[in-house]
Amino acid sequence: MDAFILQILNGLDKGSAYALIALGLTLIFGTLGVVNFAHGALFMIGAFCSVTLSKLLNLSYEVVDPTKKDFLGRPLVEKHTYIESWFGPETGAAIIDWSVPLAILFSIPIMIGIGFVMERGLIKHFYKRPHADQILVTFGLAIVLQEIVKYFYGANPIPTPAPAAFTGSFDFGTMLGFDPNTVIYPYWRLVYFSFAALIIGAVFAFLQFTTFGMVVRAGMADRETVGLLGINIDKRFTIMFGLAAAVAGLAGVMYAPINSPNYHMGMDFLVLSFVVVVVGGMGSLPGAVAAGFLLGILESFASMNEIKSLIPGIDQIIIYLVAIIILLTRPRGLMGRKGVMED
Questions:
Q1: For the domain bounded by 2-56+100-329, which CATH number is listed?
Q2: What is the pLDDT of residues 260-275, one digit of tens each?
Q3: Are strands 75-81 and 184-186 parallel, antiparallel or unpaired?
């Protein structure tokens, strides 16, 4: 039972990342009809927003202290961060420690701006082009963004620690009646799952209960009719592209302490996220979220040693096997809409 609970937690953790990225992918496809292979790069950029803010907060200057000497007898040179000199040692250290959560506010305008530039500068020219053209151009854009990040940040992963308050692990065992340290799970992974649930809920609430969201959903169902009502649906879809970019970026921001950001992490998640979208059903937001958590949990259980000893390598292919089975039995995915990508 303890192993079962632990794998469920692992699955929810993985599924949170899959669901957030797939949600943004589905938002773009459902509104604009664009298959965006650059979406994984937006996840990567979000992670590097955490890295960038951490580096900015740790910028320092040197101060010579003549009252102290180094081992050679020279005046000691000390480094002081600007943030600590502006806000005081305690407040400055706390700001630096909480750089990842603060990167949420830092990344939102950046990701929305990048989304607007991508949509207006490139994507809009491919709305009526075949999906193959969209895939090629957005995949090329993803490679360009990946190489830009590699040039400025290097090829090695950059550790980005979570706040000290969340560096430990939560003991689920004692809460559920098990022995202490039987079922423990890192605090930050629980924070990530909670954050993902909050973002997913906010996106659905926005689409369901706001006038803007209702118009967007109407445009997803019948774009031409909404346009005939005098509503500039293209402008609203551009805003949705920016919001989808922000969702992917926020997923990357909070994932930075879990997986040290590197320039190829976007590609690592992109293929899996597209499998999630296809399994959930192209254009279906609930399907993307449900498939994300479902596949995350299945992948977690497949990674158990007991399972891998019976079927070696199953953890590497389980998602694709499930995708094949579902698509053979339900070609539109779990919650796919009729007519989507069937022309």
A1: 1.10.3470
A2: 999 988 888 888 888 8
A3: unpaired
